[in-house]
TrEMBL record:
A Pfam family recorded for this sequence: HTH_17
InterPro entries (alphabetical): HTH_17, SinI_DNA-bd
GO molecular function annotation: DNA binding
Protein name in the entry: Helix-turn-helix domain-containing protein
Residue stretches making up the Helix-turn-helix domain: 2-50
Superkingdom to which the source organism belongs: Bacteria
Length: 76
């Protein structure tokens, strides 16, 4: 599915100027149809998957209890 720059900015919760800059820098792939840039949204799927994974890892890290004694050493 292709979206315009304003639609993509709303989708990513970014200012339009930042999306335009990313398109011009090549950080977001886009096609120019002569009037406007069209951006394929499937390129963001991996980004959102990695973002969800990072959130889950952070939540797991925050849920790990702190040991009572900081000098405890793992002795296997």
């Amino acid at each position: 599915m292709y979206m315009t720059v304003p639609e993509t900015a709303a989708f990513l919760s970014m200012p339009e100027e930042q999306v335009n800059r990313y398109v011009l820098e090549g950080r977001i792939r886009a096609v120019h149809d002569g009037e406007q840039y069209l951006i394929n949204t499937s390129q963001f799927e991996t980004h959102f998957q990695q973002l969800e994974l990072a959130k889950a890892e952070l939540a797991e890290w925050r849920a790990t209890p702190i040991p009572d004694d900081v000098d405890i050493k793992d002795e296997d």
